[in-house]
Amino acid sequence: MHGLMMDTQLSISSILRHAEKVHQHCEIVSRKPEGGVFRYTYKDAGRRARQAANVLTRLGVKQQDRVATLAWNTHRHYELYFAVSGSGAVLHTVNPRLFPEQIIYILNHAEDEVLFVDIQFVPLIEAIHDQLPLLKHIVLMVDKDKMPESKLDLLCYEELIDAASEEYEWPSFDENMAATLCYTSGTTGNPKGVLYSHRSTVIHALASVSNDALGVCNQSVVLPVVPMFHVNAWGVPYGATAGGAKLVLPGAGMDGASLYELISGEEVSLLLGVPTVWLGLLQYCDQEKLTLSSVEEVVIGGSAAPMSMIKAFQEKHDAFVIHAWGMTELSPMGTVNSMNNYMASLSQEERYKLQTKQGRPIYGIEIRIVDAEGKELLQDGKAFGRLQVRGPWVASSYYKHEDQSDWEDGWFDTGDVATIDEHGYMNIVDRAKDVIKSGGEWISSIDVENIAIGHEAVAECAVVGVPHPKWDERPLLLVVLNPGTSLTKEEMLEYLSDKIVKWWMPDEVMFVEELPHTPTGKLLKRELRDQYQDVYTQ
Ligand code: ADP
Prior knowledge:
Layout: H1 12-22, E1 27-31, E2 37-41, H2 42-58, E3 66-70, H3 75-86, E4 90-93, H4 100-110, E5 114-117, H5 122-128, E6 137-140, E7 154-156, H6 157-163, E8 178-183, E9 193-197, H7 198-209, E10 221-224, H8 231-234, H9 236-243, E11 246-249, H10 256-266, E12 270-273, H11 275-288, E13 297-300, H12 307-317, E14 320-326, E15 333-337, H13 341-344, H14 348-355, E16 360-361, E17 366-370, E18 385-390, E19 407-408, E20 411-420, E21 426-431, E22 436-438, E23 441-443, H15 445-452, E24 458-468, E25 472-481, H16 489-497, E26 508-511, H17 525-531
Parallel strand pairs: 1-11, 3-4, 3-5, 4-8, 5-6, 6-7, 10-11, 10-12, 12-13, 13-14, 25-26
Antiparallel strand pairs: 1-2, 8-9, 14-15, 15-16, 17-18, 18-20, 19-20, 20-21, 22-23, 24-25
The structure holds adenosine-5'-diphosphate.
Adenosine-5'-diphosphate is lined by residues 184-185, 301-304, 323-328, 332, 358, 414-416, 428, 431, 518, 520, 522.
């Protein structure tokens, strides 16, 4: 016997329709890529999203057509989040930090016919346009009087919106229909597309704003520094809208000074971003002797949050760090390390230690660790194995891609190695491909990095396994120093000596000007391994 409840289909447009009615006066503040700050409400955003949906119809976009964006976190990009998916088309957010060849590949692979771009990306599109045979329209998201000269036939977003009717009936359709598309950055091989549905996006948004996760509500002022061009800015535009939070969008300004200005001016309470962004902000605050007085919580994910960063936010800014883990294939939220009774019962030092773990799965996501044979391992905080996940917002395959090798018995293999403790806390030991195999034992490059970054002279560091004649691999520590500081190999090793076990100690420390990153800001360790492969064998 079925339950006798309405079979309402979950849809992205319903989130904005809700905010338009219930949180209509709540603000969205956006830094425009062409300069200046734009400010409006959910009610206005609803109106402009309907106008944008009419623009799409005018441009010939039909249900399930892919519509691409190359854009920063702005109100216009936000409107497209709802207009494109809400009208039944698929929003394909493109990461402008990918190599041009990768951008060409994914635009053609997704068969995008319409592309919305911010003004900074016009030169990029001009350079690659002749390799995009399917593209019919390019819409520049800029004020009318700021339209640049271009060899391309560019449409102006604001002009199209002005001419479009405010009347639009959001269509209803099967909640399993595709809504958005995001490609993983593909550090090896071509990028792979993850195709989210309305259902997965709405459930992910509801779960991630819950109190046990990010706790986003009408009283929150949220600044997603995570880009809207990668994994939908961790789903924040949907979650913040559902919760009726004030949403602050930083545009292209991700440096410390620009972020500080926005945070203090708008009294932001919740920040979300990757560790490198916070390094810049913390350094700026230190230099200028400033505090982030309005900030209550900082969500850190994408790469491991080092303890020194967790402490700096807590002790200098009275801001609690919520460490989170996820990936493109998970929409992206998997685990969140928010405050709970257990954490509250710990001493401050124990709490810091717990905060370096990536947290517990939010309800809806199941996680497990398995050994090389696929046998599930104990949740004792010690056994480590490949981390696998399943749930309604986990990908079941890649877009137009046959390979199913990352899936096993209904579980997705994340490629991460982790432990899970008795309280359910997951700790990422390493990416499986980055773990250092020394004399049959494993060394976590992340753990060593997190300790080394705690030295005040270290701005950034990377630990990689390098071939060694006796031990297979040994760790090499590469350090970027803070400006105006100095440090020797011996001083670095001395600092590490009472913090890690002896056989984890890097055999060599090298000082470098900068470290290579992936387009999503993670350390590009493959490149470092290639570059330094002979260090221990020469
Ligand atoms: P891509 O860079 O290919 O787009 P994702 O953005 O999907 O990849 O990144 C997912 C990976 O990032 C995870 O599998 C994990 O290795 C790493 N990651 C994400 N959050 C954390 C975290 N809090 N701590 C450590 N690693 C993390």
